[in-house]
User: Which sequence fits this backbone?
């Protein structure tokens, strides 16, 4: 059925074009022979094709454009005729004898254009005559195209100020009257289209009407270009007349489109000065009109106007633009009871953007907008519409983008209240936006109340909100979110230790509610924030005044101990061990031996009781050895206890190569360069000999299990340790010891049971080159190495 209708329409269009072209051919022949009467006859017959009612507006437009092209040629002919002496008044009378009214009016408009140009009559009289005559066509589509043609041929002939057709003192009023009258009639025809035809074709009619809307809007565009329309004329005549037509037509499509046209076509300064009039029309529009878009565009234009120059800002204050817009939005929402949430939020989002542009210094205005939004959203619960939540994110992001400072946004009391309407997922998005703003602008949040307020805003990332299940969260997204929280913690700082300690307390309170999945990300950040404060207080053991409330390193270490213990619920023993060792090192720098010992004790307990994976044990023992080697605070007894434990752990590792490496690493615990009381050459040699025995045992085990002793890499590594201590002046490491080890490595490498290993060969070659290099240095070092035969 539908395809048949389309085919029929194509046939009718083809027939119309054929008839038009045939008559146009005869018209051209008459024009060429200067036969005026035949030219009028065939042009009238050509224009009769436009009388059809069978074509859709889209197809009718194709036919109209062909006729339009021919009428331009006819207009040129009429101009030539008047130059040759033909009276334009007679011509104007002559075309009115055409048989049908539609061709007659097209011809009349064409001759009328020439008539105005000839200036034989005032432009206003001809235009008034034409616009009145066009009332003879009341068919919507035919009437719209006819009046569109009138608007087209007359747009450059209006009696405007500065125009060649300028008339008496009221000349601009005459031009405005003509355009307004044509606009009014066209709008009536356009609206009438909605009520023609069966109800089932409503959607089709709306589509057709939208295709034709520019014909109506063109009139407003012409009005916008009339030079003589000043603010007073616009305020007293143009805007009231246009709005009267908009409101009275009671048509949803027309009202939305025409309001949009008014906003886009006329200057911003006019909108600002007539805000009352324009806004008063909004509540009178049909409830189904998308008023949020109209008002949003108006506020966007005014915002851009305010941003264009600081000189225009006093105008906004003078007309009280903010209060007028705010009241208008309130009235529109009241008038449209069924306005969806997205409409409400979009309006307030646009109003906030306007406020931030025009009144950036008035935080109370911004807070008022957020408060009004909260009031309108009250009782609606969490918003589930994704488009509405996006608008809320835009609303809440606007102050961050404007002020580039979360501290300013924290002053808005209604800011967190708007956040409460977001669902959990969007709450996280908004929290991420807030954190990104802090990072981007390197904002330093330095007071405990602001930190408390900030963490309330980003709580969606800090703890599980109701209804969020762990398996719903994408792992990568979760990690990124928690890393951003960790980065945020590092941005909190205050020079005053007391204030900083308060901030740390607030952060700790919030992050400990995060549950086992979040703690491994957030606790380390808090620990390092505490350690930063410890470094700041370094050297201050106790407050000389004995004030228990003051912040001391000891007090911070107590907090750190409790905080790291929270990781036990995760569990995360490897992370906890690393943090205990970091704290031990900080306590060492503060000369707090008991505190440092306690942290080491906790690390050892974790190693013994919680870390069972062999790879994790290897990593942990090397961390312990590295940290312990840097400690200077311990007395002999405590150091011996910890060192003995570390060497014991090293010898008990599962794999022999891991044992060997950990044991020779322990040798550094007995020889610390910058501490004379920690240079025990004998124990260093014992560690290295023990490492050699373990390496030898590893070779034998490999030989027994695989039939080959494997690589000599461990021996070369131990050789490098011997050379290190030899160079550092350990008296127990002698040339003969090194020589013996070199011979052992050579023998092992030549053994049939040793597996070839290019990397071990390269390692040994590099070590031998180093020995040669040291020999060539000369001086004391060269003499030392000279005795080594390599």
Assistant:
């Amino acid at each position: 059925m539908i395809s048949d209708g389309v085919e029929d329409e194509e046939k009718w269009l083809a027939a119309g074009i054929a008839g038009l072209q045939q008559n146009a051919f005869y018209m051209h022949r008459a024009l060429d022979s200067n036969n005026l009467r035949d030219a009028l006859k065939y042009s009238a017959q050509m224009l009769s094709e436009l009388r059809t009612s069978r074509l859709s507006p889209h197809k009718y437009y194709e036919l109209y454009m062909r006729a339009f092209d021919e009428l331009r040629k006819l207009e040129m002919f009429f101009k030539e005729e008047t130059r040759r002496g033909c009276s334009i008044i007679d011509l104007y009378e002559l075309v009115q004898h055409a048989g049908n009214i539609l061709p007659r009016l097209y011809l009349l408009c064409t001759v009328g254009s020439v008539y105005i140009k000839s200036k034989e009559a005032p432009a206003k009289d001809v235009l008034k005559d034409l616009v009145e005559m066009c009332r003879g066509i009341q068919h919507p589509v035919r009437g719209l195209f006819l009046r569109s043609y009138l608007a087209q041929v007359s747009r450059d002939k209006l009696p405007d100020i500065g125009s060649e057709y300028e008339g008496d003192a009221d000349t601009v009023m005459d031009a405005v009257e003509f355009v307004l009258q044509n606009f009014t009639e066209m709008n009536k025809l356009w609206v009438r289209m909605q009520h023609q035809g069966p109800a089932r074709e409503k959607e089709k009619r709306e589509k057709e009407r939208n295709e034709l809307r520019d014909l109506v809007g063109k009139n407003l565009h012409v009005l916008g270009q009339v030079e003589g329309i000043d603010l007073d004329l616009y305020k007293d005549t143009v805007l009231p007349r246009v709005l009267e037509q908009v409101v009275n037509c009671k048509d949803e499509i027309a009202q939305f489109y025409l309001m949009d046209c008014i906003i886009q076509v006329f200057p911003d300064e006019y909108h600002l000065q007539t805000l009352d009039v324009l806004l008063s029309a909004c509540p009178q529009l049909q409830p189904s009109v998308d008023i949020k878009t109209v008002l949003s565009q108006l506020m966007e234009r005014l915002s851009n106007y305010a941003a264009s120059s600081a000189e225009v800002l006093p105008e906004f204050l003078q007309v009280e633009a903010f209060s007028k817009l705010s009241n208008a939005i309130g009235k529109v929402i009241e008038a449209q009871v069924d306005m969806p949430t997205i409409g409400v939020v979009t309006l307030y989002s646009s109003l906030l953007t306007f406020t931030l542009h025009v009144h950036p210094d008035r935080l109370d205005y911004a807070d008022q907008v957020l408060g009004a939004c909260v009031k309108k959203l009250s009782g609606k619960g969490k918003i589930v519409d994704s488009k509405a939540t996006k608008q809320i994110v835009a609303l809440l992001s606007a102050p961050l983008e404007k002020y580039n400072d979360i501290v300013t946004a924290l002053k808005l009391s209604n800011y967190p209240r708007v956040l409460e309407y977001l669902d959990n997922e969007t709450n996280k998005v908004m929290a991420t936006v807030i954190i990104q703003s802090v990072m981007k602008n390197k904002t330093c949040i330095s007071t405990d109340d602001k930190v408390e307020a900030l963490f309330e805003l980003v709580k969606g990332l800090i703890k599980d909100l109701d209804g969020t299940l762990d398996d719903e969260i994408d792992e990568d997204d979760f990690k990124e979110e928690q890393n951003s929280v960790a980065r945020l913690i590092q941005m909190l700082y205050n020079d005053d230790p007391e204030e900083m300690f308060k901030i740390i307390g607030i952060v700790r309170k919030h992050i400990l509610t995060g549950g086992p999945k979040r703690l491994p990300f957030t606790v380390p950040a808090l620990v390092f924030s505490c350690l930063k404060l410890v470094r700041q207080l370094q050297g201050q053991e106790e407050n000389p005044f004995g004030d228990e409330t003051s912040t001391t390193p000891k007090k911070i270490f107590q907090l750190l101990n409790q905080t790291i213990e929270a990781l036990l619920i995760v569990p995360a023993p490897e992370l906890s061990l690393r943090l205990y060792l970091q704290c031990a090192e900080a306590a060492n720098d503060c000369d707090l031996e008991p505190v440092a010992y306690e942290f080491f004790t906790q690390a050892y307990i974790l190693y013994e009781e919680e870390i069972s994976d062999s790879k994790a044990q290897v990593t942990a023992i090397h961390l312990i050895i590295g940290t312990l080697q840097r400690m200077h605070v311990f007395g002999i007894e405590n150091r011996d206890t910890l060192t003995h434990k570390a060497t014991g752990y090293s010898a008990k590792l599962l794999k022999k190569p891991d044992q060997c490496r950990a044991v020779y690493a322990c040798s550094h615990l007995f020889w610390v360069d910058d501490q004379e009381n920690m240079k025990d050459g004998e124990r260093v040699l014992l560690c290295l000999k023990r490492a050699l025995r373990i390496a030898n045992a590893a070779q034998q085990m490999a030989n027994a299990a695989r039939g080959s002793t494997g690589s000599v890499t461990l021996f070369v590594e131990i050789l490098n340790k011997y050379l290190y201590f030899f160079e550092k002046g350990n008296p127990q490491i002698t040339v003969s010891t090194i020589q013996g080890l070199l011979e052992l490595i050579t023998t092992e490498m030549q053994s049939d049971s040793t597996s070839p290993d290019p990397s071990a060969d390269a390692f040994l070659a590099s070590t031998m080159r180093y020995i040669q290099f040291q020999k060539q240095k000369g001086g004391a070092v060269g003499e030392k190495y000279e005795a080594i035969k390599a």
About this structure: The chain has a mean pLDDT of 89. Residues 635 and 641 are 10 Å apart (CA to CA). The longest helix spans residues 2-32. The radius of gyration is 45 Å.
